Amino acid sequence: MHRSAYEQMELCVKEYMPTNRRHRVVDLGSRVSDKQSVTHKDMLGQHDIDYVGVDVLDGQNVDAVMAKPYRIPLKSNSADFVLSGQAFEHIPFFWATMMEIARVLKPRGMAFITAPSRGHVHDAQDCWRYYPDGFRAMAAYSGLELREAYTDFPPMTGIRHNYAAIDAKHAYWGDSVGVFQKPRRYRRLPMFFVRELTVWWANRVGGLQNTPLRKPVEGRALCGRPADVP
Protein backbone atom coordinates (compact mmCIF):
# COMPACT_ATOMS: atom_id res chain seq x y z
CA MET A 1 0.00 0.00 0.00
CA HIS A 2 1.52 3.31 -1.04
CA ARG A 3 1.69 6.22 1.36
CA SER A 4 -0.91 8.46 -0.24
CA ALA A 5 -3.54 5.68 -0.26
CA TYR A 6 -2.84 4.96 3.40
CA GLU A 7 -3.28 8.62 4.28
CA GLN A 8 -6.50 8.86 2.26
CA MET A 9 -7.96 5.92 4.18
CA GLU A 10 -6.68 7.37 7.45
CA LEU A 11 -8.55 10.59 6.68
CA CYS A 12 -11.76 8.60 6.09
CA VAL A 13 -11.36 6.91 9.47
CA LYS A 14 -10.71 10.22 11.21
CA GLU A 15 -13.69 11.94 9.58
CA TYR A 16 -16.36 9.23 9.67
CA MET A 17 -15.53 6.65 12.37
CA PRO A 18 -16.51 7.70 15.92
CA THR A 19 -14.26 6.74 18.82
CA ASN A 20 -16.98 6.60 21.47
CA ARG A 21 -18.33 3.13 20.69
CA ARG A 22 -17.24 -0.30 19.50
CA HIS A 23 -17.30 -1.10 15.78
CA ARG A 24 -17.04 -4.21 13.68
CA VAL A 25 -14.62 -3.34 10.88
CA VAL A 26 -14.22 -5.53 7.80
CA ASP A 27 -11.05 -5.02 5.74
CA LEU A 28 -11.74 -6.37 2.24
CA GLY A 29 -8.55 -7.33 0.45
CA SER A 30 -6.56 -7.36 3.68
CA ARG A 31 -3.73 -9.74 2.79
CA VAL A 32 -0.27 -8.17 2.93
CA SER A 33 3.02 -9.39 1.52
CA ASP A 34 6.32 -9.63 3.35
CA LYS A 35 7.37 -6.38 1.66
CA GLN A 36 4.50 -4.40 3.16
CA SER A 37 5.00 -2.74 6.53
CA VAL A 38 1.61 -1.09 7.21
CA THR A 39 -2.01 -2.21 7.19
CA HIS A 40 -5.37 -0.55 7.69
CA LYS A 41 -5.47 -2.17 11.12
CA ASP A 42 -2.55 0.02 12.16
CA MET A 43 -4.63 3.19 11.81
CA LEU A 44 -7.40 1.87 14.06
CA GLY A 45 -5.43 1.81 17.31
CA GLN A 46 -7.50 4.58 18.88
CA HIS A 47 -10.76 2.75 18.15
CA ASP A 48 -12.52 -0.07 19.99
CA ILE A 49 -12.97 -2.54 17.15
CA ASP A 50 -13.68 -6.11 16.17
CA TYR A 51 -11.41 -6.36 13.10
CA VAL A 52 -11.99 -8.96 10.38
CA GLY A 53 -9.50 -9.16 7.53
CA VAL A 54 -11.02 -10.78 4.43
CA ASP A 55 -9.27 -11.84 1.23
CA VAL A 56 -9.55 -14.34 -1.61
CA LEU A 57 -6.17 -15.76 -0.55
CA ASP A 58 -4.97 -16.82 2.87
CA GLY A 59 -1.96 -15.10 4.36
CA GLN A 60 -0.74 -12.45 6.73
CA ASN A 61 -3.53 -10.20 8.12
CA VAL A 62 -6.31 -12.48 6.82
CA ASP A 63 -8.95 -13.75 9.25
CA ALA A 64 -11.51 -15.10 6.77
CA VAL A 65 -10.79 -16.52 3.31
CA MET A 66 -13.39 -16.07 0.57
CA ALA A 67 -14.18 -19.52 -0.81
CA LYS A 68 -15.84 -17.75 -3.73
CA PRO A 69 -14.37 -14.48 -5.04
CA TYR A 70 -17.68 -12.61 -4.93
CA ARG A 71 -19.16 -13.84 -1.66
CA ILE A 72 -17.96 -12.20 1.55
CA PRO A 73 -18.06 -14.94 4.24
CA LEU A 74 -19.93 -12.83 6.79
CA LYS A 75 -23.55 -12.47 7.86
CA SER A 76 -25.79 -9.81 6.39
CA ASN A 77 -26.12 -6.56 8.35
CA SER A 78 -23.11 -7.43 10.54
CA ALA A 79 -20.48 -4.76 9.77
CA ASP A 80 -20.32 -1.18 10.93
CA PHE A 81 -17.56 -0.33 8.47
CA VAL A 82 -16.02 -1.95 5.39
CA LEU A 83 -12.58 -0.76 4.30
CA SER A 84 -11.00 -1.65 0.96
CA GLY A 85 -7.75 -0.07 -0.12
CA GLN A 86 -6.05 -0.57 -3.49
CA ALA A 87 -8.00 -3.75 -4.21
CA PHE A 88 -10.85 -2.69 -6.49
CA GLU A 89 -8.62 -2.22 -9.53
CA HIS A 90 -7.88 -5.95 -9.31
CA ILE A 91 -11.52 -7.10 -9.05
CA PRO A 92 -12.88 -7.96 -12.52
CA PHE A 93 -16.58 -7.69 -11.63
CA PHE A 94 -16.47 -5.02 -8.93
CA TRP A 95 -20.22 -4.36 -9.11
CA ALA A 96 -20.79 -7.81 -7.60
CA THR A 97 -18.37 -6.96 -4.80
CA MET A 98 -20.25 -3.72 -4.14
CA MET A 99 -23.48 -5.67 -3.80
CA GLU A 100 -21.83 -7.88 -1.20
CA ILE A 101 -20.48 -4.87 0.68
CA ALA A 102 -24.01 -3.49 0.79
CA ARG A 103 -25.27 -6.82 2.11
CA VAL A 104 -22.84 -7.12 5.03
CA LEU A 105 -23.15 -3.48 6.12
CA LYS A 106 -25.55 -2.64 8.90
CA PRO A 107 -28.12 0.07 8.17
CA ARG A 108 -26.19 3.39 8.32
CA GLY A 109 -22.95 1.42 8.10
CA MET A 110 -20.22 2.90 5.91
CA ALA A 111 -17.70 1.72 3.33
CA PHE A 112 -14.41 3.46 2.53
CA ILE A 113 -12.83 2.54 -0.81
CA THR A 114 -9.55 3.79 -2.25
CA ALA A 115 -8.33 2.88 -5.73
CA PRO A 116 -6.00 4.40 -8.34
CA SER A 117 -7.17 6.66 -11.15
CA ARG A 118 -3.98 6.20 -13.18
CA GLY A 119 -0.64 4.37 -13.18
CA HIS A 120 1.01 1.40 -14.83
CA VAL A 121 -0.38 -2.13 -14.91
CA HIS A 122 0.67 -3.93 -11.75
CA ASP A 123 0.19 -7.49 -10.54
CA ALA A 124 -1.21 -10.30 -12.66
CA GLN A 125 -4.75 -8.93 -12.91
CA ASP A 126 -5.18 -5.16 -13.13
CA CYS A 127 -8.58 -4.30 -14.59
CA TRP A 128 -9.74 -0.81 -13.67
CA ARG A 129 -9.03 2.83 -12.81
CA TYR A 130 -11.64 4.94 -11.01
CA TYR A 131 -13.05 8.49 -11.13
CA PRO A 132 -15.73 10.15 -8.94
CA ASP A 133 -18.43 9.31 -11.50
CA GLY A 134 -17.36 5.68 -11.23
CA PHE A 135 -18.15 5.79 -7.52
CA ARG A 136 -21.49 7.43 -8.33
CA ALA A 137 -22.27 4.49 -10.61
CA MET A 138 -21.27 2.01 -7.92
CA ALA A 139 -23.56 3.71 -5.40
CA ALA A 140 -26.45 3.84 -7.85
CA TYR A 141 -26.18 0.14 -8.74
CA SER A 142 -25.73 -1.14 -5.18
CA GLY A 143 -28.37 1.07 -3.56
CA LEU A 144 -25.86 2.77 -1.26
CA GLU A 145 -25.67 6.49 -0.60
CA LEU A 146 -22.53 8.27 -1.80
CA ARG A 147 -21.25 10.50 0.98
CA GLU A 148 -18.04 11.59 -0.73
CA ALA A 149 -16.08 10.99 -3.95
CA TYR A 150 -12.66 12.42 -4.75
CA THR A 151 -9.85 11.92 -7.24
CA ASP A 152 -6.35 13.37 -7.04
CA PHE A 153 -6.39 14.61 -10.63
CA PRO A 154 -3.34 16.26 -12.23
CA PRO A 155 -3.23 20.08 -12.24
CA MET A 156 -5.32 21.78 -14.90
CA THR A 157 -3.92 23.69 -17.87
CA GLY A 158 -6.94 25.31 -19.46
CA ILE A 159 -9.57 22.59 -19.78
CA ARG A 160 -7.05 19.72 -19.81
CA HIS A 161 -5.23 17.87 -17.09
CA ASN A 162 -1.49 18.48 -17.20
CA TYR A 163 -0.13 14.98 -16.76
CA ALA A 164 3.43 16.24 -17.12
CA ALA A 165 2.96 18.15 -13.85
CA ILE A 166 2.19 15.06 -11.76
CA ASP A 167 4.33 14.61 -8.66
CA ALA A 168 5.45 11.14 -9.70
CA LYS A 169 7.08 10.39 -6.35
CA HIS A 170 4.17 11.27 -4.05
CA ALA A 171 1.06 11.25 -6.27
CA TYR A 172 1.78 8.83 -9.09
CA TRP A 173 -1.38 6.74 -8.67
CA GLY A 174 -3.85 9.63 -8.47
CA ASP A 175 -5.83 8.13 -5.61
CA SER A 176 -9.61 8.02 -5.89
CA VAL A 177 -11.68 7.81 -2.71
CA GLY A 178 -15.31 6.78 -2.32
CA VAL A 179 -17.29 6.96 0.92
CA PHE A 180 -20.58 5.05 0.90
CA GLN A 181 -23.36 4.62 3.46
CA LYS A 182 -26.14 2.07 3.63
CA PRO A 183 -29.56 3.74 3.93
CA ARG A 184 -31.55 3.14 7.07
CA ARG A 185 -34.34 1.81 4.85
CA TYR A 186 -32.40 -0.24 2.35
CA ARG A 187 -34.50 -1.74 -0.44
CA ARG A 188 -33.87 -5.29 0.71
CA LEU A 189 -36.25 -7.29 -1.48
CA PRO A 190 -35.41 -5.90 -4.94
CA MET A 191 -31.72 -5.67 -4.05
CA PHE A 192 -31.77 -9.30 -2.90
CA PHE A 193 -32.76 -10.49 -6.37
CA VAL A 194 -30.31 -8.14 -8.11
CA ARG A 195 -27.48 -9.13 -5.79
CA GLU A 196 -28.00 -12.87 -5.88
CA LEU A 197 -28.15 -12.99 -9.67
CA THR A 198 -25.14 -10.66 -10.00
CA VAL A 199 -23.06 -12.56 -7.46
CA TRP A 200 -24.06 -15.96 -8.83
CA TRP A 201 -22.95 -15.08 -12.34
CA ALA A 202 -19.74 -13.38 -11.18
CA ASN A 203 -18.78 -16.43 -9.14
CA ARG A 204 -19.68 -18.74 -12.03
CA VAL A 205 -17.35 -16.83 -14.37
CA GLY A 206 -14.79 -16.48 -11.59
CA GLY A 207 -12.17 -14.34 -13.27
CA LEU A 208 -10.27 -13.79 -16.48
CA GLN A 209 -8.64 -17.20 -16.76
CA ASN A 210 -10.81 -18.25 -19.72
CA THR A 211 -10.43 -14.98 -21.60
CA PRO A 212 -6.89 -14.74 -23.00
CA LEU A 213 -5.37 -11.33 -23.70
CA ARG A 214 -4.80 -11.20 -27.45
CA LYS A 215 -2.02 -9.29 -29.15
CA PRO A 216 -3.30 -5.98 -30.62
CA VAL A 217 -3.28 -5.25 -34.34
CA GLU A 218 0.02 -3.80 -35.54
CA GLY A 219 -0.09 -0.01 -35.71
CA ARG A 220 -2.39 0.60 -32.74
CA ALA A 221 0.28 2.65 -30.94
CA LEU A 222 0.61 4.97 -33.95
CA CYS A 223 -3.06 5.92 -34.24
CA GLY A 224 -3.65 9.66 -33.91
CA ARG A 225 0.04 10.57 -34.05
CA PRO A 226 1.80 12.51 -36.81
CA ALA A 227 3.91 10.37 -39.10
CA ASP A 228 7.13 12.01 -37.90
CA VAL A 229 6.47 11.23 -34.21
CA PRO A 230 8.07 7.95 -33.10
From TrEMBL:
One of its GO terms (biological process) is methylation. Keywords: Methyltransferase, Transferase. Residues 62-113 form the Methyltransferase type domain. It comes from the Bacteria. This is Class I SAM-dependent methyltransferase. It comes from Streptomyces montanus. One of its GO terms (molecular function) is S-adenosylmethionine-dependent methyltransferase activity.
